[in-house]
Design goal:
Distance between the termini of chain B: 124 Å
Shape of chain B: rod-shaped
Structural class of chain A: mainly beta
Number of strands of chain B: 0
Largest interface: A-B, 78 and 33 residues
Distance between the termini of chain A: 49 Å
Mean pLDDT of chain B: 76
Shape of chain A: globular
Helix content of chain B: 40-55%
Largest sheet of chain B: none
Order of helices and strands of chain A: HHEEEEEEEEEEEEEEEEEEE
Low-confidence stretches of chain A: 12-28
Mean pLDDT of chain A: 87
Strand content of chain B: under 5%
Helix content of chain A: under 10%
Number of strands of chain A: 19
Oligomer: heterodimer
Structural class of chain B: mainly alpha
Number of helices of chain A: 2
Order of helices and strands of chain B: HHH
Low-confidence stretches of chain B: 1-16
Number of helices of chain B: 3
Radius of gyration of chain A: 24 Å
Largest sheet of chain A: 18 strands, antiparallel, barrel
Amino acid sequence: MRSGALSIAMSCVAVAVSLVGSPALAQSSAVPAPVGFKVGDGRLHLLGEIDTRFDSLVGRFSSATASDPELIFVPRLGGSFGLETPSTLVKFNANAEYLIFSGLLTPQSRQLSRLQALVGLETEFNRDGAVSVQIGDNFTRSDRTQNAAAGIGIISLFNALYLAVPIRPGGRALEFTPRITWGVEFFEPLLTGLTSCPAGDVTCNPALLSTMSYSNLNFALSSRYKFLPKTSALLDINFDYRTYWNATATTNPPANILRGRLGLAGLITPRFSATLLAGAAYDFGVTRAIAPIGQAELTYLVGDSTSVSIGYTRDLLPVPAFGAFANDRGYLNARLGFLQDRLQLNGTAAVDYFTFFQASMMPGLGTSARQDLLISLNVGPTFVVTSWFLIGATYGLGYRTSPQQVAQTGINFIRHEANLRLTFRY
Amino acid sequence: MVLVVTGVAALGLAQNNPPPPQAVEASKVPDSEKLRVSSDSLSVMRVALKDVLQKLEEARQTKDVVKLTCVNEKLTQIKGLLRISEQSDVALQESVARKESQTADHEFTKVTIARQKVDQLRAEAEQCMGQLAFRADENATVEVETPDYLPKNDPSYVGPIARTVETRSPPASPTGP
């Protein structure tokens, strides 16, 4: 019995070793890149993807506290265009996906089937000049939101448009970048049902979600002095001007947050890089919150395709319903490449602690500020089979709890997700 | 009467060259001496031309338009003076052979003056390069060589600080209260 198990194990090892040493893999010195169509000086790439996903918490259909699972099929189509010359950069990508909730495990979940999309544009002109111009836009329609207060599943329609003018006098070691970003986000409910939500609470009542829709103007001036080839001193100052489309100050207090950070970033040895930034932020809006902010990150660079980062950041951000909140985030990112980077293992683990500075003026939330703890984990391999075919898998864990609102199921949950992706690209 | 007035030679320029002719009346210089001085002056002017051409090339390599224009201006004048001097040298030899002393004196004077002018222009070309070297040069570039063992990406770049946080809550029950 033991010898049989041993021989199976030996066979597996032999297969693995032969896979690593197979001529087909050994002949390639790098990951094969997609070819694409030549358009001018750039390349147009097409993408097709089939994503099969298990989600342990697609809704609470059987009872207000139940976690109903489902299998989801996601066909995804997209394309990208890239052009990079010494003077010009253009990157464009667009993806659209349709989430098909199978109803195999929870029949009621079929009504969650929906279209999601992502469009991104990044351009830079006169890159090699003393003054260049950057213009870009990001658009998403998904159930992922930048509204940290949201206590129920929502559809977020988000768009951010930016204009930046990097100025690099002299030998380009010094760089000043004024930048303006205009972001808007509109909300609509995934479902119209109401569970465990205090009456009148805009963060979890589907009928009131749209009142959190906002416009956010960000004015920034960042400066960078590169005193070594891969190491810089940084000074960033920016200002958020947040307003809400359909809300009064009692439902969504406006926020005007000024931030400043100063520090160093870059290589400290050939294998280690670090980011150390410290500063402060102040909300001139209703909360009058003042908070130290910063970032500390250490990265171990094993190679170009393998790195491990550990870090901590703290920031003060505007948020609907409360005005402003502080986010303390500890994180660990890892990217490991094997078989000449054909096999990639990516992992991210993060712990976020949200401190909502203002006790909401809405009824039902009491006088104490809300504090949420979020733990997230994403880990999985991707294998590049050929230049046009990839196989990937991911496991994701999401955990969120809010001690001040324990009865609210939208911000107290645990969620497991697993997916298998087949990616075709050209 | 034609007087030849010597110019001021640039420092160190004429150290290896024959000394410039002194301020003397051309009529008092013997014909054989005129021929020798004229020939020497032509040699000196050709060396000066070669020297300024080299400076022009240096100015071109620095991609400094101000230096290049300055040196080029001096070079153009030297070329003109050398051409006139070569014609005068031939005319001098002919007039000496014909015993036409007045013509010989005139051509000798032209060569001598041309040499003084060329010496002066050579010094000015030197100043074009030397003095401007102390000015701030907007076209100067500094090339930083990155060691091969450093990673290719740039970890010193940190994106805009307005970081966003993405969250995702589960939808509520459509059959709930």
